């Protein structure tokens, strides 16, 4: 069992049981993959992780391909995760990845830049203890270099170059969290990330009668603290945030 000081606590022990269910935190020096279809709760889980980590004193970078700063603050507020103070205190760095023509990731003439290369060279975003890329598949789907490799059926080669960079980041004791929609990207592209993830969480929506239930399937959890459940039921509630519903341990 790893030392407690090697785990970054997800906090909010009085608010929900998520940190306890995940064994007391995420091990430093980890790549975390959170996978799930649209609506499964990837962004909400990233936001919950971010808020809890900041509350526990960790510095966090969160890059979103979907939310603007205003949208992020509004969504966090609706989940009762007040991120205004951490943003103002620079404990949280929020970045909006704008892929539209003329956005931060386009040249003046509208040509898309090499996104992944630009991200790797953006030193400020990698200074935090924990870096979230939500959603990561949108980043490499919009990268022209990656697209060219995909057309040549060289997805794995492209993925391995990115993984090499991530390994360098986590060697400094940092945590990189990737969220991915598996329906939006080829298995050959996502396969290498599944293989190397130290923590692999699969979010799933299940219809039970008229209800939609969400659950976290813990596919891998290297360096866990206390025992981690195989399946953790949860819901996303306005005014409350993430709520743990049930747990089953194999």
What is the number of beta strands?
11
Distance between the termini: 19 Å
Order of secondary-structure elements: EHEEHEHHEHEHHHEHEEEE
- Quick one: overall form? globular
CATH architecture term: 3-Layer(aba) Sandwich
Q: What share of residues is helical?
A: 25-40%
Average of pLDDT: 85
Largest sheet: 9 strands, mixed
What is the CATH domain class? Answer: Alpha Beta
Percent in strands = 25-35%
Structure in words:
With 250 residues, the protein is of the alpha/beta class. The protein has one domain (7-244): Rossmann fold (3-Layer(aba) Sandwich). The protein is 32% helix and 26% strand. It is built from 9 helices and 11 strands. Strands 5-4-6-7-3-8-9-10-11 form a 9-stranded mixed β-sheet, with helices on both faces. Helix 8 runs parallel beside helix 9 (187-196).
Topology, element by element:
Elements: E1 7-8, H1 18-21, E2 26-27, E3 31-35, H2 42-55, E4 60-64, H3 69-78, H4 84-88, E5 92-96, H5 115-121, E6 130-134, H6 136-141, H7 144-151, H8 155-170, E7 175-180, H9 187-196, E8 199-208, E9 211-221, E10 231-237, E11 241-248
Parallel strand pairs: 3-7, 3-8, 4-5, 4-6, 6-7
Antiparallel strand pairs: 1-2, 8-9, 9-10, 10-11
Helix pairs in contact: 8-9
Keywords: ATP-binding, Cell projection, Cilium, Flagellum, Nucleotide-binding
InterPro entries: AAA+_ATPase (IPR003593), KaiC-like_dom (IPR014774), P-loop_NTPase (IPR027417)
Domain AAA+ ATPase: 28-203
